[in-house]
Design a protein that fits this description.
Blueprint: E1 2-7, E2 12-18, E3 23-29, H1 31-36, E4 40-42, H2 46-59, E5 67-69, E6 78-84, E7 90-96, H3 103-113
Parallel strand pairs: 5-7
Antiparallel strand pairs: 1-2, 1-6, 2-3, 3-4, 6-7
Helix pairs in contact: 2-3
Length: about 120
């Protein structure tokens, strides 16, 4: 299972979610609009899934903390990454205007998983 989101209340927002086989990619101008769209259904190759998981390893994402938030900023960019790759390999992390080391690599891996579409 994979769920990755990045966006803001009024700015571009992106979400990818998958059951491990089929993937749905959504994009909209703001989080509220994102909820209204069904997105595009994609089927990444086994090689794309393998590269995605390797990128998570290289980014150190399996060791991320659960929460990264800048308390002094009340607007801006929110994100979450939830990945279950077996019973003992999970990521469940979210944030607001603060990011763990390796975050940009995970965004790049997500873009590759969706075939190069916007995800920033």
């Amino acid at each position: 299972m994979v769920k990755v989101f990045i966006g803001g209340l009024f700015g571009p927002s992106y979400e990818v979610f998958s059951d491990g086989v089929t993937l749905r990619y959504k994009t909209a101008d703001g989080m509220l609009e994102l909820e209204k769209t069904s997105g595009v259904r994609l089927t990444p190759s086994l090689q794309q899934w393998k590269q995605f998981r390797q990128a998570l390893d290289q980014a150190g994402a399996w060791k991320w903390e659960g929460r990264y938030v800048r308390e002094d900023i009340h607007d801006g960019t929110s994100w979450y990454v939830v990945v279950a790759d077996g019973p003992n390999r999970t990521i469940s992390s979210y944030g607001g205007n603060a990011y763990p080391e390796g975050f940009e690599e995970v965004l790049a891996a997500t873009r590759a998983l969706i075939g190069g579409g916007d995800f920033r």
